[in-house]
Automatic annotation (TrEMBL):
InterPro entries assigned to the protein according to its UniProt record, in alphabetical order: Cupin_2, GPI/OXD, RmlC-like_jellyroll, RmlC_Cupin_sf
Single GO MF descriptor: metal ion binding
PANTHER family noted in UniProt: CUPIN TYPE-2 DOMAIN-CONTAINING PROTEIN (PTHR35848:SF6), OXALATE-BINDING PROTEIN (PTHR35848)
Record carries keyword Metal-binding: yes
Gene3D superfamilies assigned: Jelly Rolls
Domain Cupin type-2, chain residue ranges per copy: 74-150
Keywords on record: Metal-binding
Name by which UniProt lists this protein: Cupin domain-containing protein
Amino acid sequence: MSDTVILSEGAEFDHVIQEVSKYINLYVMAFEKNERAITQMDKRLNMYGGKGTVYMLQMFDQKELANNRLAAYMVLLNKGDESGFHTHNQRNEQELYVVVHGTGEYRERTGVEGSIRKKTLKKGDITAISSIGYHSIENTGDEPLIMFVITTNNP
């Protein structure tokens, strides 16, 4: 698992916002609402047994989108930051990763011990992750790796 800290202010929060804002506009407009910034930032240390720090920037709140996981930015700021292998099988979720900036190595496998398939991802690449699959992502470049994550929820 990982340790999760919710960041709402301070130097680290400001740093992440500043870095991400170099590459994307962090303002959204939910249906029938005014334009605004993110609703929450989660800092996940060693996410799913990975290395470093993953930041999850929630763009919408639960009332705006199903499960509050339909839209979020996953940001791996530093080279080597990684989300370790994990599955969304228990929640029957599927994910799409849309790379907005940076370079990373995407890995997937079937089951806990399956053979690993790897793909280098760069800006514009999209991956589809099955709820039964295991997957991980690592920032392998020198720039921040910023991905838009779309997660379905089908209980």
